[in-house]
Design a protein that fits this description.
This is DUF2281 domain-containing protein. The protein is an all-alpha fold. It is built from three helices and no strands. It is elongated.
Length: 67
C-alpha cells in the first residue's frame, strides 16, 4: 500500500503533495495513542452528588442559559 501511495504522490503537483502532507500530519495528531484507561471507580469518594441535583435551577441562574 505504501508503494502505491508513493507512486500516486509522485504524479501530483507539489502544491497537492503539500496538502496531502498537511492532512497526513493532521490525521497523525488525531490518532489516539495506546494509553491505559483509568480503572473503574478511580475517583470514588472524591465528590458527592447533592440530593437536590435534579431540582430546577433558581430563576436567576436559568436566565444565564436561556436567550
Amino acid at each position: 500500500m505504501i508503494e502505491r501511495i508513493i507512486t500516486i504522490l509522485r504524479d501530483l503537483p507539489p502544491e497537492r503533495q503539500a496538502e496531502i502532507l498537511d492532512f497526513a500530519e493532521f490525521l497523525k495528531k488525531r490518532t489516539p495513542r495506546d494509553r491505559m484507561l483509568r480503572p473503574y471507580g478511580f475517583c470514588a469518594g472524591e465528590f458527592q452528588v447533592p440530593d437536590d441535583f435534579d431540582a430546577p435551577l433558581p430563576g436567576s441562574e436559568m436566565e444565564l442559559f436561556e436567550p
